[in-house]
Structure formats: C-alpha cells, structure tokens
Amino acid sequence: MWPYITRRLIAFVPTLVLTSLLVFTLIRVVPGDVAEARLSGGGELPVDPGEVARLRSELGLDRPVYNQYLDWLRDLAQLDFGTSLWTGRPVAEHLQQWFPVTLELAVFALIIAAIGGIGLGVLSGITRGSVVDYLARFVSVIGVAAPTFWVGTLVLLALLRLTDWAPPVRYTGPRQDLVTNLTIMFWPAVVSGFASMAYVSRLSRSAFLELSRQDFSRTARAKGASERIVNLRHILPNMLPAVITMLGVEFAHLITGVAIVEIIFSVPGLGRGLLRGIANRDYVLVQSIIMLIAFMVLVINLMVDVVAARLDPRVRLS
Amino acid sequence: MSNGRFPSRLLKTSTGRRRLLRRAAVGGGGLAGAFLLACSSSNEESSPSGDAAGSTGTGTAPATTQPKHEGTLVVAHSTEEPPNLDAIEGTSTTFHNILGIFYNGLLRYDPSVPDASAIQGDLAQSFEVISPTEFKFTLHDNASWHDDRPVTTEDVLFTLEMYKKSSGHKGEALAGVDAITAPDARTVMITTTRPRASLLTWLSINSMNIAPSHLLKENAKALEKRVMGSGPFKFESYEPGIAISGTRNPQYFKKDVPYLDGIEYLFIPDENARLGALRTGQIQMTTRLKLAQAKSVESKDIVVQSAAAMSNGVIGGHVDKPPFVDPRVRQAISLAVDRQAALKAIIDNDGTVGSPIFAPKLARSPEELLTLPGYDPAKKAEDITRAKQLLAAAGHPNGFETEITSRSGHPQYEAISVFAVDQLRQIGITARIKAVENAVLSRLRSAGDFDMLVAAGTSYVADPSGTTNYWGPEARDFPVRDANIARLLEQVEAEFDIAKRTQFVRDLELALIEWAPYVQTFWTNEHDALATKVKGYTKMIGLFGNARHEGIWLDG
C-alpha cells in the first residue's frame, strides 16, 4: 500500500501545478481588477487611471504575468500564501481563520449525511414498496433536486415563522463556547448535508437491495439467520466501501460547496471568503483558497481509496 | 446646547453680508438646507429627545425615558465589511458607517435633525464664517486621541491637507480651498479662492474624519490595522468576517456621552439572516433596508425609520458623442422617459421623482417638478410627440440605434436599463443593453467609453454641489459644457443668502433639465429597522450622515 500512497502523493505535484496554472489564468480572465475595485469604492467613484496604475504597481500587478505566476508558485511551495490584495493581511491569516470553520461545517454536514443517508437508505431498502419506502425516496429526491440556497433560505424563514428563533448570527468558535458553536453550526450543517444525505440514501438503498439478493445473504437466511442478523452482519458491512467512497466524494463537495450556506447562516468560512475574494478580484486570496481546496480534495480522494481498500479485501491498490 | 436652524429673523434682516455673517456667528445659528452660514457657540450633545421617531414617520418608539449609561448596541449594517480599518484613506460608506464611531470630524450634522440641515461642531467647539472665503474653527481644548495624546491643530491641518490632495469626494469637499492655517494652538482657519457656501456642509459628512498625524507621519498605512481616533468609542476588537466592536471612551471630550457601554457591528451578508436576527433580538438595529423588507419586520418591538438615501438612478447619453452631443437629442430623451412610471416600476414608489439636484430645501419639490417638461405623466403623449419632432429636427426622423452600458448582476441597474429600452423605443430609438461587471463599468465610465449609460450613485450632500460629480464640468459621466450653467453653479456656491441662493439653485435646476445631460429618474428612500428599546437615534438622509452614535442609549 505504501508504494501506492507514495505514487499518489507524487502525482499530487503535477495536478496541483496544473490547477495553479488554471486558477491563475482564469481569475485574470475575469474582467476588472483589484486596483479598480479598490479605488472605485464599489464602482460608484470615478477612477483616476494614474491612481489605478500606481496601485497596480504597488500591488505588483504591473509585472509580467509569468513573473507573477512563478513568484506565487515559488512562495506557495514554501507555504507562503502571500498577502491579500484587498485587505492587506496575510492570506495565511485568513485561511487560518476560515478553513477550520468550513472544515467543521463540512464534517458536521458529513456526519448528518452519513447517519441520515445510510439510515434512510437502509430503512427504505428494508421497507421496499411500502409507504415508508416511498416517503424516504421522496425525501431523497427533494434533497437531490432542491438547490441549497433555496433550502437554506426556507429553513431560516421556517425557523423564524414557526419558532420565532433563528440560529445565532454572531459566530462563536468551538473553543470559545462549544454549545453555542454547535447551535450555530447545526442548521447550516443540516442544510449542507441534506443534498449529500439524499445521494448517500439513494446509493445505500440500491446497494442494500442488491446485496440482499446476493448469494451470501440467501445462504445466511437459509442457515436460519434472522433478517436483523443478515442485515447487520452481512449486508451492512458489505455496503460500507461503496458508501464510504460516496461519502468521500460528498465531503469534497461539502468543502467546496458550502459557500452559499455560509452566507445564508452568517458562518465566516472559506466559501464566503472565496466569494468575497472573487467579487473583489483578490487574485492572491482566490488562488490560495482554490489551491487549498484542490489539495484537500486530492487528500480526501486518497484517503477514501485507502480506507476502501482496508475495508474490502477484494480491492487491491496498484 | 444644540444648534437650532438658521433663525428666520436673521434671514429676513438684510443688513449687509459681513454684518449678517457676524450676527449669524454671534447668534449661534445653524443652517437651513444647504445654506451654510452658521457657527456653533457650544459643542455639547443635543438634548436627548428619547425619541426614535422615523424621519418620515413610519415608526415611532416611545419617548418616555432618560438616557442611561449602559448596554451594548449590536448593529448589522447592510454595507459590506471594510477591507481594512483605515477610515481616513477609505472613501466608501463601508468604512464610515462602521468606523465612524471611533472618530470625529471638524464638524458634523446635528444627529437629531434628519434632513442634515443643521451643523454642529464636532472637534470644533465653535466655528464662524468670517467672510464667504474665510472660515474659522476653534477646537475643543480637551479632545484627545485614544492613546491619550491631545488632538491638535496640527492633526486638523495634516488631515485636511491630505484630503485636499486626494481624488474622490474628500478632495471634492475641499475644492477651492486655498490655505489651511493654524494661527494659534486652538484655531484653524480655512481660506478659499472663491466663495464656498457649501464648504461647511461638506466638512460635516461622516467621512471627513480627522486623523492622528503623529501616527500617519510615521507610517501612512498605520491605520489599516490599528484604529486610532478621538471618537466616543474606543476600538476593542476586529474579527474579520464576524464583527468590529468598540467600547465607551471614558475620556471622551464631550460631557456625559456616549451613553452606550459599547457598540458591536456584525457582518451578516444575508438579508434574511439580518432581519431574522433583529426579530429574535440578537441585534438591535439593521440599516439601509428596502421598504418591503423593513415593513416585514415592523412590529410592536421593532420600529422603522425612513429617509431619503440621496441615491439615484439616471439614464443618459455621452454628451460629447453624436448623436447625444446635439441638445435636441438629449431633450427628446428627457421628454420620452416617464419618471413617474420609473419610480413605480423600478422602486415601487419608495422614493421621489427627482431633478438632477438633490437639495430638498432649495430645489423644486416633486409637485413643483410636475410643471416642467417631461415630468407630468398626464402630458406624456404631448411629450412623446414633441420628442419625435426634436429627433427629426436633429436629423433622426426614424430614431437611431444605440447601446446602453449598464452594470450586470445589480437589480436596480438592470431594471433601469430595461425600462430605458422600453421608453426610448417610443420615440424610435432602438437600444440594446451592454451589461458589464462593476469594475469594468467603472473603467468604461472613467474612460467615457459608452454611448448611453445607466448609472446609480449618491449625492454626498443635500446641496447642488453634491451631484456635480455627475454633471459638473469635471464630471466623469455627463459633464455639462454650458457657460450659463457654470455661471449659475458659481452663483450658487457664492451666495450665502438663503433666499437668493434658493433662486439660483432653482435657475440652475431648470437650466440642467433643459440642457438634459441625463434623465434623473428618481431618488430612492432607505429604511432602518431598530428595536424600540433603542433610543436617541434618528435616521438621517443620505449615506454620509452622523455615524458617531454617541447620543444613542438602550432602554431596558
């Protein structure tokens, strides 16, 4: 396994370099730049071309693009994320603040997706053809079809209307106050995890049904094992590799896709920072966040592969 | 003691300009509208009214309590988080609406007068108009920076000189200023090369904060990460993406204020979350709402205050490019656009039909505007006929094709653009919309690279000079090339007598409508929603009003 992991880690390098090239190019293709954005005060103030040129020079944006890229890549290789062109603060400082928040939200959402998705899928499989099955499938279809921003807004408004309560809007870290933090994170996690839960549920149901028709399940039943034993000892363990793979993919989606939820629920995470960075054309910040996300996705994929191989002896990493 | 409005008896007594000026100074008057001829003999906080009454009366909090020195006010502005903490270099409202609690200006608007028509000293204990080109300010002798250093005339000189050299509205505020001097340790004199009737109004906007020269001389970027003001609240903490908070400045040079122990500004980008937080008592105030949003939270516990935002929506052609260089084409467009319909269709009547000037006390009222060409919806058919005649006379009997440059992803710009296309079609002008991203729009506007333009902006002050960034001779978008208008603008700026100034403003307004650099569709309103327990707050017109919040307290 270790040679496989080593090869995969080495393969990270060209992937990340390619990603860096893409993100560096794409953010610059977008019209406008940070100097204009900073000087125009939201676009309403006249921009003096001389001032723009001065600020561009101050920010190092007047240098040849390839120089900017190579310098950035060199700094990145030394884990120096540079300085935000918008706030003037080190990007590392921003990442240090935002990344744990997003990670916590994604993990929380993943737990909800895993528990809810596997539970709903298995329940649906066990009660195949019943009202419960149809209800569970309806919920999972809604989860797949409904856009997160819509679900998030609806949840927020429903909470207000039905309970006259809303999640705390002032973010509090888990170290400051765990209970408050969990109160803040619960609903965003539910909303973020809802779509993932739906995917996991659908996969779990189909895997459950397929496995329940396999020879080993039939044999267990023939040997007199109860359905409960068959489900718990034979079907569920065999479902896990597929579900874990799916959860891994969903975790990567959650890391990259919680921006809207972060905005709706006032969670100061990476996604919210990324959207702000894009709006402000903060190239350095955007590039760094994307690279961090890309790295995370690569690591998660590797971990999923390794875990799946450990769980299923039939999988051989090569 | 607060400053009153400009005393009417004083205005009626014409005894010569210099004598009038002196009497105004001695009388401790204020101003009326944008007429700025006043002095403050005292700089103490306005007597608290205990009233959170709406500027236009959509909600009123009980006015039964006396100020209390306790509590922390939690506010969620709709404005974005400022990129850094430098409210001196920062120009947009994102800086000043939030960071204004840490600073003082030389002057400020009386926070209890919602139409920003009364000026008080802020760091200036008193001020005096010596002559139309000479302004004297006497500083408080006990004002200090939050690091306990005294605020000196050197700080004022340093800051104003810095602003004078800057581009943008702070430079505009000090246009025509010849010299800023300090004849003694407490006095600052500003002399101008030409009469500046609007100077005091400009000095009162909340972005004209005075900076600590001892820090900025050492490091011009010193305030980006460190707040150092003289204001009613001391900087406590900044958590990027979460909050900025301040605590009461116990050494504040004004007696008895601030009342609050602290203020915390939360950055909540989502509107529903802000309103939900207000409803559930997590915050006590949220600002700059649309009417429908504000009404959705109005209750026995939440009141809404409304005021003109001094923000507008305009449609215009490039005045130096054909066919818009021809005044007949511009006038035809002005006649074609139904302003009342724009007001209703685009902002649901939450505003007023406007002239190119925002100066409520001086310019024409919306009712008076109805008598002018293009403003009366009942005469729209006649206006359209006349517009077609003008186009034909200008050599475009069948209209022409053009392009409207607008901002993408902004509902108001998009709505005005679509509305404009529809209105122009009625006189045969076929327009297509070119929607571009905000920064690109800014670049195109600066380069004059457009045929027609939809713009939405803000008048910095309730005075004709507040909109010259749109139509003044040096304007970016619609510079008016007209000697008569230039002369009228000079007269408005030179005239300190309110009656005469009003007449000049009206003449200027009429001349601008006739010259038609653009069509002013409407001026919008904005609304603040606040818990009834918030006392002593009055929403002020515009985006650059009082931001000190020293007179606010919480009741219960």
Task: Report the strand count of chain B.
Answer: 19
- The oligomeric status of these chains comes to heterodimer
Q: Can you tell me the residue ranges of chain A where pLDDT is under 50 for at least 5 consecutive residues?
A: none
Spatial shape of chain B: globular
Our measurement of the CA-to-CA distance between the termini of chain B, rounded to an integer number of angstroms, reads 27 Å
Produce a short descriptive summary.
Chain A is mostly helical.
What labels would you give this structure?
heterodimer, A: 318 residues, mainly alpha, 76% helix, globular, B: 556 residues, alpha+beta, eleven-stranded mixed sheet, four-stranded antiparallel sheet, 18 helices, 19 strands, 29% helix, disordered N terminus
Structure description:
The complex is a heterodimer of chains A (318) and B (556). Chain A is 76% helix and 0% strand. Chain A is mainly α and 318 residues long. In chain A, helix 5 crosses helix 8 (178-212), helix 10 (227-257) packs antiparallel against helix 13 and helix 12 (270-279) runs antiparallel to helix 13. Chain B is globular and about 70 Å long. Chain B is of the alpha+beta class and 556 residues long. At the A-B interface, helix 2, helix 5, helix 7 and helix 12 of A face helix 8 and helix 15 of B.
Strand and helix layout:
The complex is a heterodimer of chains A (318) and B (556).
Chain A: H1 2-29, H2 34-39, H3 49-58, H4 65-77, H5 91-126, H6 131-145, H7 148-163, H8 178-212, H9 215-222, H10 227-257, H11 259-264, H12 270-279, H13 283-311
Helix pairs in contact in A: 1-13, 5-6, 5-8, 5-10, 6-8, 7-8, 8-10, 9-10, 10-13, 12-13
Chain B: H1 8-12, H2 17-26, E1 72-76, H3 93-99, E2 107-109, E3 119-121, E4 124-131, E5 134-139, H4 153-165, H5 169-173, E6 177-184, E7 187-192, H6 199-204, H7 213-216, E8 233-239, E9 243-248, E10 262-266, H8 271-279, E11 285-289, H9 291-297, E12 302-317, H10 327-336, H11 339-347, E13 351-353, H12 366-369, H13 380-393, E14 401-407, H14 411-425, E15 430-436, H15 438-447, E16 452-455, H16 468-471, H17 483-494, H18 498-515, E17 519-531, E18 534-535, E19 553-554
Parallel strand pairs in B: 1-10, 1-11, 14-15, 14-16
Antiparallel strand pairs in B: 2-3, 4-5, 5-7, 6-7, 8-9, 9-10, 11-17, 12-16, 12-17, 13-17, 18-19
